[in-house]
Amino acid sequence: MQTTARPPSTEEHDGCPPDIATMRASARRFLAEDSTPPSAHELETLTLQLRGHMQLLIPEVDQVIARLPEDDVPRYCALACVGEARRKLDIAPRPGLSAGIAHARRLARSLNALCDHYENFSGDRS
User: Fold this and answer.
1) What is a single Pfam family found in this protein's UniProt entry (predicted)?
2) Which residue of 40, 52, 75, 80 sits 20 to 30 Å from the alpha carbon of 114, by its own alpha carbon?
3) What is the pLDDT of residues 3-31, one digit of tens each?
């Protein structure tokens, strides 16, 4: 059974900036060339962690890019990244450990890109 965390609403947001360093460390777990493949149980936990990070960061990136001019090319790139991240959150991995790892790698790359956009537009270099 796959469950997803609900991102905080505007009223629930605590005003703290996202922990980009922790998010990048989670992504690095799947993107490092020398990383040891996780067990099936670890994979499920790590994938849920990546998904949770993305669900927290997407609204943050949305807020940051909303302040940019409408005709700004980097804004369009960030909007495309957010759209792609949302689509990846809607995809269920195929059965099997290797398919799950491939899915987690796609989520990790998307999370890294969201972190890049957040840092570039918010000025927050964690």
Assistant:
1) DUF6415
2) 40
3) 444 444 444 456 789 999 999 999 999 99
